[in-house]
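Preliminary data (for renewal application), adenosine-5'-triphosphate complex.
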Amino acid sequence: MSKPILSVRNLHVKFTLRGRELHALRGIDLDVLDGESLAIVGESGSGKSVLNKNFIGLLDQNGFIPEGSIRYYGMGDKMRNYGTCAGEDENGPYVDLAAFRRKDEWLRIRGSEICMIPQDPMTSLNPLKTIGWQISEALRLHHGMTGRMAKEETLRILQDVRIDDPARRYKQYPHELSGGMRQRVVIAIAIACQPRILICDEPTTALDVTIQAQVLTLLRELKEKYHLTIIFITHDLGVVANIADRVAVMYAGDIVELGLVDEIFYEPKHPYTWALLSSLPQLGQRGEDLYAIRGTPPNLFKEVQGDAFAPRNPQALVIDKLEQPPYFEISPTHKARTWLLDPRAPKLEPPAVIAKLRELGGVRHGR
Ligand SMILES: Nc1ncnc2c1ncn2[C@@H]1O[C@H](COP(=O)(O)OP(=O)(O)OP(=O)(O)O)[C@@H](O)[C@H]1O
Ligand SMILES: [Mg+2]
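Predicted structure:
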């Protein structure tokens, strides 16, 4: 297994809202491995975006980190100027992104080392500048490239993201392109920065299914070509199956299960993962409503007692309501936070419908 490029330990994030505090991340532990493709799944409000915004210093103004560390190992010598935020551990030299206090500390990280592709490409493209200008600008800012060199490199990157007729596209404006093409331009700008980590926050939800598949294929190609580490945030487990090496399942500001993609699809252990998988469209019966998880996530203005999913879990144990479960290790690559894995717990089988995933050969296509 490769080494972590990012190591998150006991990360808490809180937001201040009208004098009250919302506990959005409740002690996240996560290693992002160098060169992997990690999917982060979980329903709306589980903390996927908040977690990732910490990696690029874009937490909203009212958010803060009361506790925890985020060690980034990709900087090598470039971390000399980070003073007390820098250090060395068994994984090598690091900078602790959670310890940053000034805006300028992010300059050499955001965009250069870690890039994020937002959900809606239009929010990150400038409508008044040509595609070519915008990609060249990234090359200038991050690599000091100008003039002909920048133009040639831009044309090459346009080709890399499989935009046809790069010379013509170079001169076009965002509104002249389709949604899928714009998403490719956003990806091109990210690639121009040559980041180590690319965070894709629901990068395909605004696109139709065929274009979605093409963008995913492209991201897979670029990952190989540029040795990227990709963090993929998505609601869509079909996307996960097609792109991820590992999956982290988030619920109410915590990671409740983490494993290789096959472990999560075929050997899921947490009742919340069971519920998520049961709602996969592939498992729906013709003519029947899709499975939907009942109830709502906990109110994060209050401290959560026990297993956060217990109130929605019809089979919750007594202890689930009292005490937060620790992680139990299922394999060296698979862990879950559920009392069901305690040797004293009753043996509960996942819903029968999940076994169907195996029969279907998973939900992958074209991998
Ligand atoms: N600026 C903020 N102020 C207060 N609460 C916030 C703020 N930003 C996020 N939150 C809260 O933090 C929690 C996690 O939000 P987050 O945006 O990370 O969810 P998500 O998993 O990305 O959801 P989605 O799938 O809808 O994008 C939610 O309860 C959300 O309401
Ligand atoms: Mg989000």
